[in-house]
Amino acid sequence: MSNSEVSQYWRSKSIKVTDGGATPDVMTLLKAFHQTLPTWVVGEVMKQEAQPAKGTRFDGNSSTYEEEEGLLDIIIDRRNGYVGYLSPTDVDQVTACVWRKNNGHRIFAVSLYEQHDPVQNLLCWYDYDPQTQTLTPSKSPIDSYQKPFERMEFSWTLPRKGTDFIIHEYYFFPDTDFTQVYSWDGETFHRSKTLIDDFCFQYFGEGDWIKAGTQGFTQYALVDIDHSGSPALCLKNNDNWIVVNEFRGKMQTVTVCDEATMLESMYHVVPEAGKPWTEKDVVVYTSDFEHVHYYVVLQNGSIGYIITSEPNYDEEEGRVTEYASHKNGYGAKDESIDIIHADRGEDIFIKPQWKPFSFIEREE
Q1: CB of 24 within 8 A of CB of 37?
Q2: Under 8 Å between Cβ of 333 and 348
Q3: 101: which of 105, 147, 229, 342 fits an S-S bond (Cβ 3.0–4.6 Å)?
Q4: Could you tell me if 324 and 266 are in contact, meaning their C-beta atoms sit under 8 angstroms apart?
Q5: How far apart are CA 93 and CA 203, in angstroms?
């Protein structure tokens, strides 16, 4: 069966586990799952279980098979309740995991991954009742998870060690992913902490690259400034907070805020003079950093340009009448941006929903 076929049927099928007993291990549950919803990739795990490949390493109740150069790992770890068929080259992958509940039941999860276009990532989640020896479909943390923004991607990780369920959020910030940790208490999962991959940023394309993790930031928020569906990242420490976003594959500052809720807006750019701002057009913000005004142009959720020359604003006409150029500024040579049609914008007051977080070093 393909992932799409499994997705259609798994929620409607309870699975009887042959010889499940009170304490079935992960392979017993995975075998029952495979007998009801067979897939090629779980079949490969079953073959490895029945006849381990040459070179398989054994450690008590665990076995690991690794092909050369990390092309394939097949892990069967009964001790930790984990199975994995992991390969960067194969189309299909699978992980499976078991959690023990306080009432004697088990949570059994199977994560199926297909590298198609689009990627098909599927999480099947069951409650195992030892009295009936039955796997019953139930709700996972993914069922209650809501994407903070539409233009983002996410995935999840089942643990081999420990009990945390992990959701990975990808906001298209360079080298900066978010890890949402859900802790297991013996009955259910609770969102416990947020980890953010540490990254380097620069103030308006100038000066040294700064490691964000060295600046004492302890809270973060995501704000869709230009209503593009893609957020900017706000980071707060005891002194102030900054807004950073992607600019040419790096993280750059949008603005530095001394006050808790103000983000200063200079111009809302519209396609033609006289047309109202739709809240989806280019937005130009300014920040006075070290006595220089930087005009930051947001385009489709990222920084499009950083400008140091102030646009000519015609007070009588109430709009910008000449180009704002950055030919000698940041970006490729001789680039310029035309904001010939722009309405003067009012200051925007936003109230970021601050959440605690910790930086972690990105794993290579």
Answers
A1: no
A2: no
A3: 105
A4: no
A5: 42
b/e map 216-252, b = 16+ CB within 10 Å? ebebbbbbbbbebebbbbbbbeeeebbbbbbbeebbb
Q: Distances from the Cα of 284 to the Cαs of 227, 252, 267, 331, in angstroms?
A: 13, 15, 5, 17
The two three-digit tokens of residue 88, written as one number: 């960067």
User: Structure tokens of 32?
Assistant: 């029952």
pLDDT per residue as tens digits for the range 176-218 = 999 999 999 999 999 999 999 999 999 887 789 999 999 999 9
- The whole-model pTM stands at 0.86
Backbone angles phi, psi at 269, to 5 degrees: -85, 130
Cis amide prior to 231 (ω within 30 degrees): no
Which residues share a beta bridge with 288? Answer: 293
Terminal C-alpha separation, the chain: 33
- The rounded distance, in Å, linking the Cα atoms of 229 and 276 is 20
113: Cβ–Cβ under 8 A, 6 or more apart, which residues?
3, 92, 93, 94, 119, 120, 121, 122
